[in-house]
Amino acid sequence: MVEKEDNKSENKKHHHKGRSSEKHLDRGIVLKELNLHSGQTILDAGCGSGYMSKEFSKMLNNTGRVYALDPDNDTINKLKEETIGTNIETIVGDITQRIPIEGASIDLIYLSNVFHGFSKDEMEGFQTEVKRLLKPKAVLAIVEFKKIEAPFGPPLEIRYSQEELKKTIALTPKSFVEIGEFFYMQTFENINI
Length: 193
Known about the structure:
The protein has 193 residues and is of the alpha/beta class.
């Protein structure tokens, strides 16, 4: 596992402040690459407005379950109201800590433009919780900003290149795809080697 400098002290921690990269991502490529099917259980960790949770729900034909997780109580309450009668279950929480979902019950954990903001301690908590939640052979999909200069997004020094991400995540790398000018998605599989 690669050690990145922990440049996110409490005073310098990166925050999204309600901003979303939704309009910049090619969600069609994301959905095709994830190859979702009816009956799966998906965790959209750091879901924000829930735009991908809603897409996942559609792809599952309102079967299975989509957990929409975010630490922002107001955002989750709004999403809860918007998704009444669907297979989306909203949870106020943080993927870097234990959340109220049964272990080994998730087919896919999706994390979009959140990973770069984790401190070293949060990174450890994230990896522990991901391993606890994923079924064997289940998938972790991480969408991140490319490590290039861009007109928006987090500072370059906290972004992860594809290689840095693969060295950091303690799962088996699976696939890589570019999903817009400034973003990529790397998937990992929960395989014990």
